[in-house]
TrEMBL record, chain A:
Entry protein name: Phenylalanine--tRNA ligase alpha subunit
Domain of life: Bacteria
Keyword presence, Magnesium: yes
Gene name as annotated: pheS
Membrane spanning stretches: none
CDD domains per the UniProt record, alphabetical: PheRS_alpha_core (cd00496)
Assigned keywords, A-Z: Aminoacyl-tRNA synthetase, ATP-binding, Cytoplasm, Ligase, Magnesium, Metal-binding, Nucleotide-binding, Protein biosynthesis
EC top class named in words: ligase
Reaction it catalyzes: tRNA(Phe) + L-phenylalanine + ATP = L-phenylalanyl-tRNA(Phe) + AMP + diphosphate + H(+)
NCBIfam families, A to Z: pheS (TIGR00468)
Known cofactor(s): Mg(2+)
From TrEMBL, chain B:
Residues that bind Mg(2+): D460, D466, E469, E470
E.C. number(s) listed in UniProt: 6.1.1.20
Domain B5: 407-482
Identification of the protein by name: Phenylalanine--tRNA ligase beta subunit
Necessary cofactors: Mg(2+)
Gene source species: Fructilactobacillus fructivorans
InterPro entries in UniProt: aa-tRNA-synth_II/BPL/LPL, B3/B4_tRNA-bd, DNA-bd_dom_put_sf, Fdx_antiC-bd, Fdx_antiC-bd_sf, NA-bd_OB-fold, Phe-tRNA-ligase_IIc_bsu, Phe-tRNA-ligase_IIc_bsu_bact
Predominant place of localization: cytoplasm
Gene Ontology molecular functions: ATP binding; catalytic activity, acting on a protein; magnesium ion binding; phenylalanine-tRNA ligase activity; transferase activity; tRNA binding
Lineage start: Bacteria, Bacillati, Bacillota, Bacilli, Lactobacillales
Length: 345, 803
């Protein structure tokens, strides 16, 4: 029965060695040495012919069992080793997740452009067409057709850069009222338009004045448009731009191209209406001018003021941006300091 | 315009505090700049009486005074004023007092002598120097003899009155007077206005027209009236009148001049007084000046006149009409007989003259906005009456009219339904009528229709829309409902061009560039740099500074200013773009420039900064070109883009600049800013591009197109070659593409090398070629053949040495 004992020995040693194996190569070697064509089991079985015939199948089956057991053990050991190796690898691959991510190029929209786009979108949602007009404007459109004849005292309110006596840098986007009114075919429905753009004033640049800034003009003309509609429209714009808690109030004012004219105040950003230095204690901040389009403006643009009327307003995106973000110097918008621009997304 | 709360209360009942009143005025009438009392911030300033005066032993100009301030003992005050006088009641700032500019008064020693307070001049207790009467200009102020020692001084000087500073809009000239403001508040509060204009019967024995005559061109002065007062006693006005004036922001001069200013402030009619005896002729005329005439105005300035100016003249100009009188006929302490003038001067001519002469006066401010045509003569009579009372004058009978229009209240027809239609309200006829009545308007009702008679004191109300505004503000804007317009449905949206511009901005921001906004007005030099096409300049007629004198003809120079601004602040990586208009003119004769939308970019430094994990790649031509290519690709242009090397742009690097063409049309350029220009701008190496966005907008687009993705595998082959260094990628690529056969899908350069192992004058360049048959699996032999053909062509046509 030496053969049987040999096999027992092979098993004991084999299992021991498999257990002790530390890497895949040792395991492969063991597999070859134990189970291979020239392995120890095969070698041991060389002696089977010397056994009596009736013993042979027993030994054969014993050997097969041994093969199976060793193979299985090697396989499971291999799984175990692979897992350990992977664990080690993963451990070695540990990184400092607190290090910063890579920089990726990313530009920023200009804060004033954002406000203009927001305003455009609010009014597009209410069925307004967005139109653009010339920055170098005819005196006729900028003043005369806005009911500001020559030597009108209100012209002092808008100091002007002239190119010639008839051509100037537009001082407001209001001339787009006249241009749109002239073009519009009222048989096709009402005129509802906003017109954003750059405007120019003969002002010395300082924290609250810029010789170049932006305006968005708005106008609605139809057969029955009211001051109440103006109030409601300005409320929608304010709520969408700044939030529902902001209120709008109208005060009498004066613009030659509207009658009645109003100034619109909204709840002070700084004190939420309680009263502070920013709002001179009133709780309100003046943000825009508006009114019912003056009959003369309609007439001069060829629109029958007995049939049609409506409202117009002009808002200042620069001022809105200053209020919304607490920017205290309008010149910051035009310096293009990246440390400033990149704060807005 | 400063207006006294207390003065207003003389004429209309006001239940609100001054601050509440100011808020109310803002909501119904005009803006209010501030509300204040002249006593605000002052403390411990009392009436004192000078008991004795001694010269200071060690200082020439100082006096040691003992002053009774109502305490047990007089206090000692050292004073340097030249006019100290025993017995006078004076303004004393006690120790611990606060005087003007928040200065604190403490006990001190002046040249060794104890001083326990300060005797004050008016400006030392907060009066602006321009308001202090000349007699008190150089010394301490004497209070009335009946002032009670120890009292606070404020009430004696009107300093406890609340002053409301109105910012009167051009349409509310009526509020430039106490009378107009009182009527406005009467309407706002629905209170009766008790405004009496007293005119006393003249005591003079002459008729004014025996003493003077007047002639006025109605186009210059539709109303012009004179009245003579004889034997006046010119002296300082009584204190009550001086207080009224300085609390209206006007300096007291003498009783006659003060009367004219008082009338202006109280009833809104600017006036003037001449010394009758100083007139060279008694025939006054309102006329245009003659070119070259000169007048010395009361402010002491000599003014050269031209024929657009309007003057009052005897045989030469004696006043600038509606602005200011002349020095030669000034009323002074020696004046005996005076001529009061009240009239209406043309608003436009007044405004022009005020601008031209740089002389904006209280009078011109009012004439520019208009005055009450119906109140001129009443104002004149009022002044004459006051001159009898305050200057013991004898006012002569009647007035002289140089011109006199017939003044009628304006009648405006309106309907209550129209008012509701414009305001979106639902006011009854009764409510509307009651608002008009509150305003003092006459109303005749005929059902819905109203005939409204507007008094002359509301001269700016001319049309029905003006009446709508009156209803709106008296009814209250807060009471108007909020609705949205109900109209036929309209399709809103951006124009296609605006959409393209917005998308362009988003694309460039996605590619790493930040949106900059620069000024369109720039220097002459910068306006004409980096020009994409030839253009004449558009300069301003009267620029304020050289920095903003000419309209830009490029966007890049603005971006370079921005790069410089950032780099000067150590922000070295500057990737910016700008979208805006440039202004082109064909030639000098074109008056109004064409406004062309451009888009431009500038990158200096690198797009992303150095980090622990990543080395910054300094920007180069190919990086900015990559950005530009991606942007142009996003536009889906139908045409073919080519880059053509140019050394002709003066501000650009001659070896690193390309013109960009869309088919044959120049659409922009790209490259490195010329190092000399970069130095001029004080910026580091910077790459830029500028494109004509308007042209790109009009250029045909392919739209979004779909090409089926092949289902058979593609085959890749590389070709490497040596070519002459002047052979461009464009040439090689064109040849490969043209000769690549039906299955060549793409040829992309992947390596360019010059240096060791490459012969002098040669470069090594390598392409990756992609072949694909959409309908079958390509065979290697087919591709081999195609590559072979390409290589032969390269060898033959470009003298390439295939490696
Ligand atoms: Zn506030």
């Amino acid at each position: 029965m030496a053969l049987k004992e040999d096999l027992e020995q092979i098993k004991t040693n084999g299992l021991q060695n498999i257990k002790a194996a530390q890497d895949g190569k040792t395991l492969n070697d063991l597999k070859v040495n134990l189970l291979g064509k020239k392995g120890s089991i095969t070698k041991a079985l060389h002696g089977i012919s010397e056994l009596p015939v009736e013993e042979r199948p027993k030994i054969g089956s014993l050997a097969n069992k041994l093969r199976d057991e060793l193979a299985k053990t090697i396989d499971s050991k291999r799984v175990e080793l692979d897992q350990a190796a992977l664990n080690q690898k993963l451990k070695d691959e540990k990184i400092d997740v607190t290090l910063p991510g890579d920089s990726v190029p990313k530009g920023h929209p200009h804060v004033i452009q954002q406000i203009i786009d927001e305003i455009d979108d609010i009014f597009i949602g209410m069925g307004y067409q967005v139109l653009s007009g010339p920055e170098v404007e005819e005196e006729v459109y900028n003043f005369e057709m806005m009911n500001l004849p020559k030597n009108h005292p209100a012209r002092d309110m808008q100091d002007t850069f002239y190119i010639t006596k008839d051509i100037l840098m537009r001082t407001h986007t209001s001339p787009m009222q006249a241009r749109a009114l002239q073009k519009h075919d009222f048989t096709k429905g009402p005129l509802k338009m906003v017109s954003p753009g750059v405007v120019y004033r003969r002002d010395t640049d300082d924290p609250t004045h810029s010789h170049q800034f932006h305006q968005v003009e708005g106008i609605v003309i139809d057969k029955h448009i009211t001051m109440a509609d103006l109030k409601g429209t300005l409320e929608v714009m304010t709520h969408k731009l700044f939030g529902d808690k902001f209120q709008v109030r109208l005060r009498p004012s004066y613009f030659p191209f509207t009658e009645p004219s109003v100034e619109a105040d909204i709840t002070c950003f700084n004190c939420n209406g309680k009263g502070c230095d920013v709002c001179k204690g009133t709780g309100w901040i003046e943000v825009l001018g508006a009114g019912m389009v003056h009959p003369n403006v309609l007439k001069m643009a060829g629109v029958d003021s007995n049939v049609y009327g409506g409202f117009a307003f002009g808002v200042g995106p620069d001022r809105f941006a200053m209020l919304k973000y607490g920017v205290d110097d309008i010149r910051d918008f035009y310096l293009n300091d990246l440390r400033f621009l990149s704060q807005f997304d | 315009m400063l207006i006294s709360y207390e003065w207003l209360k003389d004429y209309v009942q006001i239940k609100l505090s001054p601050e509440e009143l100011a808020n109310k005025i803002e909501k119904t009438s005009v803006e209010v700049d501030s509300v204040f009392k002249r006593s605000d911030g002052l403390k411990k300033i009392v009436v004192g009486q000078i008991l004795s005066i001694k010269d200071h032993p060690d200082a020439d100009h100082l006096h040691i005074t003992q002053v009774d301030v109502g305490e047990d003992e007089p206090i000692q005050i050292v004073c340097g004023a030249p006019n100290v006088e025993i017995g006078k009641k004076v303004i004393v700032a006690l120790s611990g007092a606060r005087i003007a500019d928040n200065v604190k008064i403490k006990k001190s020693k002046m040249r060794g002598v104890e001083s326990n307070g300060m005797l004050c001049a008016l400006d030392e207790i907060g009066f602006d120097k321009s308001l202090v009467p000349d007699e008190w200009k150089d010394g301490i102020y004497f209070l009335p003899d009946n002032a009670r020692v120890g009292d606070e001084v404020y009430n004696y000087l009107g300093m406890n009155e609340s002053l409301i500073d109105l910012d009167v809009t051009p349409n509310r000239g009526d509020m430039l007077s106490v009378r107009g403001t009182a009527y406005d508040l009467g309407a706002v509060f629905d209170e009766k206005v008790n405004f009496i204009e007293h005119a006393s019967a003249p005591t003079g024995t002459h008729d004014t027209d025996e003493l003077i005559s007047a002639k006025a061109d109605p186009n210059l002065a539709p109303i012009y009236k004179l009245k003579v007062v004889e034997n006046v006693d010119v002296k300082p006005s009584p204190l009550w009148l001086q207080i009224k004036l300085w609390n209206s922001g006007i300096k007291p001069i003498n009783n006659v001049v003060d009367i004219t200013n008082f009338i202006m402030v109280k009833v809104g009619q600017p006036m003037h007084a001449y010394d009758l005896d100083k007139l060279k002729s008694k025939d006054l005329e309102v006329r245009n000046a003659k070119d070259g005439e000169v007048i010395t105005t009361l402010d002491g300035n000599d003014r050269k006149l031209t024929s657009t100016d309007v003057v009052i003249a005897d045989d030469k100009p004696i006043a600038l009409a509606g602005l200011m009188g002349g020095k030669d006929t000034e009323v002074t302490s020696g004046t005996k007989n005076i001529v009061f003038e009240a009239g209406v001067f043309d608003p436009v001519k007044t405004r022009k003259m005020a601008q031209k002469q740089l002389l904006h006066t209280d009078a011109s401010q009012r004439f520019e906005r208009g005055v009450d045509h119906g109140n001129v003569e009443a104002a004149l009579e009022y002044a004459a009456g006051m001159a009898e009372d305050l200057a013991n004058g004898e006012s002569e009978q009647g007035v002289v009219n140089g011109s006199n229009e017939e003044v009628q209240p304006r009648v405006i027809s309106i309907s209550s339904s129209y008012i509701n239609h414009v305001l979106g309200t639902n006011l009854s006829v009764k409510e509307i009528v009651s608002i008009f009545k509150r305003l003092g308007f006459g109303v005749e009702e005929s059902g819905d229709n109203l005939t409204v008679t507007v008094p002359t004191r509301c001269w700016d109300l001319k049309i029905d829309a003006d009446l709508v505004e009156e209803v709106a503000r008296i009814y209250g804007y807060d009471n108007i409902p909020s609705t949205l317009p109900i109209t036929q449905t309209t399709e809103g949206g951006l124009t296609p061009k605006q959409e393209m511009i917005r998308k362009s901005r988003e694309t460039l921001e996605g590619l790493g560039l930040t949106h900059a906004m620069s000024y369109s007005l720039t220097t002459q030099e910068k306006a004409k740099m980096f020009m994409l096409r030839a253009s004449s300049e558009t300069p301003l007629q009267w620029p304020m500074t050289e920095d903003h004198a000419i309209l830009r003809m490029n966007l890049i120079s603005g971006l370079l200013d921005d790069v410089a601004y950032n780099q000067a602040r150590n922000v070295l990586n500057v990737p910016l773009y700008e979208q805006g208009r440039v202004f082109y003119k064909q030639d000098e004769d074109q008056v109004r420039p064409d406004e062309v939308e451009h888009i431009a970019g500038a990158i200096s430094g690198s797009l992303v900064s150095n980090s622990w994990d990543q080395k910054a790649k300094p920007v180069d031509f190919y990086q900015i070109k990559g950005i530009l290519e991606k942007y142009l690709a996003s536009l889906s242009l139908k045409g073919h883009i080519t880059y053509v090397s140019t050394d002709k742009m003066a501000d650009m690097h001659p070896g690193r600049t390309a013109l960009i063409k869309l088919d044959d049309h120049l659409i922009g350029f790209i490259g490195e800013v010329h190092p000399k220009v970069a130095k001029q701008f004080k910026i580091k190496e910077t790459y830029v591009f500028e494109l004509d966005l308007d042209y790109l907008y009009t250029a045909p687009k392919s739209g979004q197109q779909y090409q089926k993705v092949g289902q058979y595998p593609a085959i890749h082959r590389d070709i490497a070659m040596l070519v002459d260094e002047n052979v461009t990628n464009a040439e090689i690529n064109k040849l490969i593409t043209r000769r690549g056969g039906a299955y060549l899908q793409d040829a992309t350069v992947f390596d360019v090398y010059q240096g060791s192992n490459v012969p002098e004058g040669k470069k090594s360049i390598a392409y990756s070629l992609t072949f694909e048959d959409p309908n079958a699996t390509l065979k290697d032999e087919t591709v081999d053949k195609a590559v072979d053909k390409i290589q032969k062509r390269l060898t033959n046509e470009l003298n390439a040495e295939i490696r």
